[in-house]
Amino acid sequence: xxxxxxxxxxxxxxxxxxxxxxxxxxxxxxxxxxxxxxxxxxxxxxxxxxxxxxxxxxxxxxxxxxxxxxxxxxxxxxxxxxxxxxxxxxxxxxxxxxxxxxxxxxxxxxxxxxxxxxxxxxxxxxxxxxxxxxxxxxxxxxxxxxxxxxxxxxxxxxxxxxxxxxxxxxxxxxxxxxxxxxxxxxxxxxxxxxxxxxxxxxxxxxxxxxxxxxxxxxxxxxxxxxxxxxxxxxxxxxxxxxxxxxxxxxxxxxxxxxxxxxxxxxxxxxxxxxxxxxxxxxxxxxxxxxxxxxxxxxxxxxxxxxxxxxxxxxxxxxxxxxxxxxxxxxxxxxxxxxxxxxxxxxxxxxxxxxxxxxxxxxxxxxxxxxxxxxxxxxxxxxxxxxxxxxxxxxxxxxxxxxxxxxxxxxxxxxxxxxxxxxxxxxxxxxxxxxxxxxxxxxxxxxxxxxxxxxxxxxxxxxxxxxxxxxxxxxxxxxxxxxxxxxxxx
Length: 489
Fold this sequence. Notes:
Elements: E1 3-7, H1 11-22, E2 26-30, E3 48-49, E4 74-75, H2 81-89, H3 99-117, E5 123-124, H4 126-129, E6 130-133, E7 136-139, E8 145-146, H5 150-164, E9 168-170, E10 175-181, E11 184-190, E12 195-197, E13 200-203, H6 212-218, E14 227-228, H7 237-244, E15 249-250, E16 256-262, E17 290-292, H8 311-319, E18 326-330, E19 350-352, H9 355-360, H10 367-380, E20 416-428, E21 431-432, E22 439-441, E23 447-453, H11 470-486
Parallel strand pairs: 1-2, 1-13, 2-9, 4-7, 13-23, 14-20
Antiparallel strand pairs: 3-8, 5-8, 6-7, 10-11, 11-12, 15-21, 16-20, 17-18, 18-20, 19-20, 22-23
Helix pairs in contact: 1-5, 1-11, 2-3, 3-11
């Protein structure tokens, strides 16, 4: 029986642990945080999983409640591998699909079925990924399922599976150093001053998003000011430890998963509220309105695509604006379409009965610029096309230097609301190079014996953007691979 140590306890770590256990290993998981803060970034997510599927019937084995009566009147559509690959390719900045991306696409459904076989189940995302149309729930954007209770629920289900299979987890126990014998990794040293020996070590301890100095070094000067949406514990420790052994860095270090966040959110999503509510600081309904920067200008095409494909890029775009903030502007026509986080008890916004009055309440914004921008936008909206949030409806503006390509409605019905946002960082893209078994490669191309990686530690999965839900699926795919590899199967 192989002894496997895993650093970290998030989605990827737990999937690695489950895979190692089912392949006959004894697994000890070491978590830097206390029990309440365990789980890495997983608890901060919406628990949504993007994967290729053929039709609604192929989703039924994955569901917590396949007998839900709503399913009979639901159109899930399909999300073929070719579409998943195309969506990833659209964020690659001209790069071809990487080996890691091809693996993510080809193994995504099997990974979900594998999780389901361990009683990790999912629910359709009716509240966020579907709209009512002709009496049916119509899903859009290829993202259909999430864990009940979102990221917290996913963590709980995976942890239950891990411990049920005999896995052990220790909290307040960070891996601080890798123990080696020659060129092979043979164990770890911990913050509790222990040396623990193992046949294999899996680094699943996240990227460097909670390290302001590393963000500034790798992503850019503005990024030391980004709000950290997730755990404070992902400070790049695994990357640093592996690099000391000559591990090959890989992927796009200048990119990260970002998202528009409440400007007044404290770092780490306000640790004083329950983990499941921290996601409510996201503000991703910009496609129903417009965003203005400090000059009063629009700076992105808010309707260029479904928000699943734009929020990571737009979160980064906000960080590039003067003073790193923007305002999201909505009118009463879309009030009932805004997601729950816009009515979250801690959401910050201003409200007014007229658009002119609203503009006076936009702190830090050039009011003349905002007035001109909103007036020009309203004049440019094409009223001849019907608004339909279930599709790329082509309801656009005409004649503007920066168009709104879909879902462009005039902002003309009070009351009006505006929400201040900034860029929130969730995870970083640059990581390490691994082989087909999840083993980390040395700079010379050879595997580092006994050392594996998964989750945010794996580079080459994402580059200049991110289709929503892919990150958790990547954790499952590469976590499963690393666990199996570390167990020697």
